[in-house]
Amino acid sequence: MNSIEALAVLSSMLRKPPLSNIQEQVFHLTWQGLTYTEISANIGYEESYIRDVGAKLWQRLSQIIGEKVNKNNINTVVEHYIINRKEDISAPFPLSHSSTTMLNQTRTSARLEFPGSPLPLNSEFYINRPPVEELAYAEIGIPGSIIRIKAPSKMGKSSLLQRIIAQAKAQGFHIVNLDFQQADESVFVNLDKFLRWFCANVARQLQIPPNLDDYWDEDIGSKVSCTFYFQGYLLEQIDTPILLTLNEVNRLLEYDTIARDFLPLLRSWHEEAQLDEGFEQLRFVVVHSTEIYTSLNINQSPFNVGLPLVLSELTLEQVQELARRYELDGMDESQVADLMAMVGGHPYLIQLAFYHLRYTDLTLAQLLEEAPTLAGVYSHHLRRQFATLEKNPELVAVLQQVVMATDSVRLDAIAAYKLESMGLIKLQGNQATIRCKLYRLYLREQLSLESPTDPRIGQLEQENQQLKYLSRIDDLTKLANRRDFDDHLAQEWQRLAEEEVPLALILADIDFFKLFNDAFGHLTGDFCLEQIAQAIRECVKHSGALVARFGGEEFAIIMPHINGEQAVQLAEQIRERVKALNISHDPYRMCGYSSIITLSLGVASMIPHPDDDPLKLVQAADEALFESKRQGRDRVTIR
């Protein structure tokens, strides 16, 4: 029996008022074994409120059943009651239409999980996202391997982690699962206390007496003591591999001093395992939300080694398959597309919709109409997201720019990281767009209602944001300035070094611009620069590139995930677009060269390496640009 079947029977016996939406959710999640703390985190209400809802719900159910009901015995008491009364279920208390539908459907279908919790291993609602699962299963067979699962909240990280753990168990691995969200605040007081907590937890899960004091020596330091403890004690007693999973690593990153010592320690163990030096029995799975921005040197952290697994949204075909598994046979491709137009391919948002479409009388049209409102099925999720946002007021003004914009918006790296971690935005480099239409509609309404208590504070925040924006923008062309170019190049170099994917750079120079300026004057010269800046911006607007004014008449385009061939094609488009502007030059000064403004362009593309300087890319593009000029200008050269 599952929670839907149980609640369908119990609801039919309730006198008015019926159970509220929040009471039903507490019932379902409690039935699945979640604690009040976990339920609070799932549906976005304070834990104290959830406890109060639960207490009143158990009291009401106790009156119906005639036996005391609480969160610890709900499954046993309710199942026993229904089994004993099964002959009466169809007569004395007729079920409502929706309850009858739910009861009949759940009797003939697989066990339904209320969306929001990790999907059980036997769940038919888990959708594989090839090649993610296959890569993970192969990687855990490698001594000292590190798997990094990266995705925003509710994208399926925990469900994937469960399947990796099951695969490891099938191969006879010991499993140690640490969730940093479960650690007390006192654990993070200092590195020594944290590492002792870490070691003690690993030992207890391996069912080995901790005996920390036998290996801990303050004279050699906590990190060396921790290493000796693993090598000389724990691993000596284990003759099969250990899968060590570290969940919610983002919590650890809130404590910079600890993160700067602990994460490089993991990396050193990983590297020692490659040399067969005692750590070959360890395998790591590190789970975190999106990119990691800390003061760590990328060469010291584990976030540019091992196998990175990025959980993407579901495709149209995968959503259609999920609809089939929910037995939504009447839902055609166009209806699936309508739902995805509202929520994208976000697994949790899709499943929540299918859950309600399958087990209530709600139609897709009603669901979509109410989706961004507090009356819709996403109300708890949306309220939870907004409550988290309100705890970070510095992000409100930043997100407002994204919500109100019709195109992508360039954000500060830290703000972009935080908003992506919450799952509110998508990033291409530092260019941000809102994750889905649902968030745009809801947040546009909520943010328009937000007004600071003191209007002077709101004005000051806006002025600060404006000043920060202006400090990175070229006054004339409204492109990024040289300072912003340098910062962005360094950030992209570090990010793509981790992913081991190419980064391309185009440097473009206006041919004979000084002659043009001398002939027509600085005002005309400025207008020429503005036109060319706009032309370049139009060519790259969908590529996630950053366009900057590199020097007087030079422009630079930074393009992540672009190889040399693709960059040359884009550079040729830019060259042709500028020629099409047909900006006339002074024919008497051109001495046989083109009588319209042209560009010379240099292209370079390489896979960044953390040990290299990003100026290496700039130098290569500059050499290519020089070669274009040397060969007669108005051309593209690649190095």
From TrEMBL:
GO terms for biological process: cell adhesion involved in single-species biofilm formation; negative regulation of bacterial-type flagellum-dependent cell motility. CDD domains: GGDEF. Pfam families: AAA_35 (PF14516), GGDEF (PF00990), HTH_VMAP-M9 (PF26355). GO terms for cellular component: plasma membrane. InterPro entries: Diguanylate_Cyclase, GGDEF_dom, HTH_VMAP-M9, Nucleotide_cyclase, P-loop_NTPase, Rev_trsase/Diguanyl_cyclase. GO terms for molecular function: diguanylate cyclase activity. SMART domains: GGDEF. Residues 501-639 form the GGDEF domain. NCBIfam families: GGDEF (TIGR00254). This is GGDEF domain protein. It comes from Coleofasciculus chthonoplastes PCC 7420.
